[in-house]
Amino acid sequence: MAYPSAVRIVEVGARDGLQNEVSVTTEQKIALINALVESGLRDIEAGAFVSPKWVPQMADSSEVIKGIAKHPNVTFSALTPNLKGAEAALDVGIKEFAIFTAASEAFTQKNINCSINESIERFKPVVELAKANGVKVRGYVSCVLGCPYQGEVEPEAVLDVCKQLLAMGCYEVSLGDTIGVGTPNKVHTLLSLLLEHISADKLAVHFHDTYGQALANISKALEMGIATIDSAVAGLGGCPYAKGASGNVATEDVVYLLQGLGIDPQIDLERLAKAGWAICEALNKQPISKVSLALQAKC
Description:
By secondary structure, the chain is α/β, with parallel strands linked by helices. It has a single domain (8-298), classed as Alpha-Beta Barrel (TIM Barrel). 44% of the residues lie in helices and 15% in strands. α2 packs antiparallel against α12, α9 runs parallel beside α10 (214-223) and α12 packs across α13 (290-298). It is globular, with a radius of gyration of 18 Å. The two termini are 35 Å apart.
């Protein structure tokens, strides 16, 4: 099997993970991000510039980003859904904006009260600000393999949204299985269509492990040439549409999988696990990661 020779991991635990957990202190977030860097991670979502009314867990994103150690070889990104958020992110030195929409009309209407096209239109000032300041923009598409409201999502709808985000100026689009219902066959069907129109280096995958399929789905994506994977240390984050279910695939499990495939992600697994243990202690919970729990049992 011809897997990619190198794989980039985008660590989303400090943002996508923690925003779905109970709040922790600014100092604990800073310690987590610094520990993730020490483990070897080079792409880290550090916060979200969103309304604290809706996402109180991210209210201190400016303080977190100002507090983390400066690392010239690490890209810290932040969620910037509107111009106000993008300006705030720019003020603290963020060099990569993240914008998000969905492939499901029902999902966008329920969550942000607009159509997919209207959501993309809202991003234009954000992208313009990014271009004017040398900031990269990464796009996220939710519900690529299923929607909690409309059910099935057609691959053609995903393709259309991806094309719009790339045309707007996103350097990459992350494909999100928001409710974790995807299976390898569904991943194959979706990527087969997308790769007819979009090069693999412009696509990333973001799987949730609600039904325990995330690693199998990642393996399928790797087989098809996708070389960027989103994951969260310790499996941080829940799935808000499936009560009690796990959310993001754990970075430790992804690293272990890659190592087993002969792909070196340049990440120290033990240091990574320790970063997860520390934040889980702060959250008063156990890691979701099976690899993390296995390593913990050895200590």
